[in-house]
Amino acid sequence: MRRRLTLLSFISITTLLLMTTKSEAQDFKLSFDHNAIQVKDLTESSNFYLNILGLEEIENKTEKSHIRWFSMGGDTSIHVIENKLHKVPDVKGVHFALRANDLDAFIAHLKKNNIYFESWPGEPKVTNSRPDGIRQVYLQDPNGYWIEVNGE
Prior knowledge:
By secondary structure, this protein is of the alpha/beta class. The chain has helices spanning 7-19, 42-52, 103-112; strands at residues 34-39, 57-58, 67-71, 77-82, 95-99, 128-129, 135-140, 146-150. It contains 3 helices and 8 strands, in the order H-E-H-E-E-E-E-H-E-E-E.
């Protein structure tokens, strides 16, 4: 039986990695490659990632009709996989983040398309600033995945 990586397992592994001292030699270097999400409606979700977030669709190397790939910039991507039975936990702290070169223009785009967004504390249609001074908003895709969009 295949075991799923639980949040607790992920935290434990992350803690062990962070506890590794720099004095230990490593013969490898990790970099982010892709994120995969499961969605109930592939067309609706793909339209959101194309038209609301403005991501570029790229080649689906799996050639499976229930999967679409979108560029996240550079060599990174997001894989959108249809699974009509999948349920997304509604936890804002579990999200991915994108950076907008003009956050105000992105917010105007959201408003024009009647897309709800909020600050980290949950105030509708406003930004908040992180401790480092970066402004941000949060929105959800059609399946309930939280997305942070920040700017300068």
